[in-house]
Each structure stands twice: as structure tokens, then as C-alpha cells.
Amino acid sequence: MRRLAVIAALLSLSVFVSGQSTPIPGLVAHEWGTFTSVAGEDGRAVQWLPQSGPTDLPDFVDRIDCRFKGSLSGTVRMETPVIYFYAPREMAVNVSVRFPQGVITEWFPKPTAAREDIINGAMGGDIAWANVHVKPGAPSRFRIEPGQNHYYVARETDAAPIEVGGAMERFLFYRGVE
Asked: Are strands 162-164 and 62-63 parallel, antiparallel or unpaired?
């Protein structure tokens, strides 16, 4: 029964992209990511602390309160989902992600239209970015930090750069636990 609940939770993850009341010809929002779960010898999901170890994310990625995050147990970790955008022209879109039975634990850029409890470091399975400026052909001015981080290879794609609240990136990033 628990296995069916986990499968249902995975299928309930949804991403909504809207910018106009009518579809935008040529706009593609491509979500990519993985889920990790741990099973016991009997094949049943096991509670674990997926957020308890050190993080390898770039320092500019925002996170929920570490005291809370370190004690957050779950059976599923939503691993590094990202949303890439492909568009024929510059445009602004609004994006929201729902992880109904989970908690969004990390994100970048900072959400511009999210539930306040997420931004303030409390539990929440919804996150949103308003006025995501999709800029095909724009020069890449991405935030970096000293040293090379293996997450930067996610920028090596032909997706359009995006700008949210002054932050440039190639994608929207978020992570969570259920």
C-alpha cells in the first residue's frame, strides 16, 4: 500500500507554465530530474534523512532552514529537477511547481511568487516564479563561485537563458523531500 502511495505522490508532481491566456506558439518548457527512494529487504519504502549530509550545491542556491532540513525524513527525494525553456522570441512567463505531499527544500533563482512559508524556511510543497524572462540568444551571464561545481554542466544546453528578479540562469532549479 505504501508503494502505491509513493507512486501516486511521484505522479502528482506537476509543473504549470503560463504567460498568456492562449498558448504561445513555439514555447517549450522541459522539466528534467530524478527521484531517489530507499527500500528495505522486503521492498517497502524506508524512512531516511536525505538532507542530513553535506550539500554539493553552489553556495548561491537558497535552502530551507538547515535545522529543519537536517531533521527532515522522507521516503522520496526529488533530485535536482530543473526546467529549461525554449522559445522563438523573448517573452515572460509565470511558473509554478507543486509537490503536494512533499517539501521544497532548495531553489534558485529566488522564487518571486511563492508561499511565504517556503521563503521563510518552513514546510511547503509549492513554489512559483513570476515574470520569468525567457531570452533566447541572450548572452550568458550566470552567477558562479570559486572552483568548479559539477552542477554547472546543467547549463551546457541550447535552452534559452532566463532572468528572474535580476538573476540570470539557464534553468529554474528546485529540490524536495516527501
From this structure: unpaired
H/E run at residue 118: helix 116-119
Q: Where are the domains of the chain?
A: 2-177
Q: How many CA atoms lie within 13 A of 87 on its CB side?
A: 24
Span 14-66, pLDDT tens digits:
444 444 445 678 899 999 887 778 788 998 888 776 666 666 777 777 776 64
Whole-model pTM?
A: 0.73
List pLDDT tens digits, range 61-79.
777 664 544 466 777 777 7
Sheet of strand 91-98, all strands in order from the earlier edge strand to the far edge? 14-18, 91-98, 126-134, 162-164, 167-169
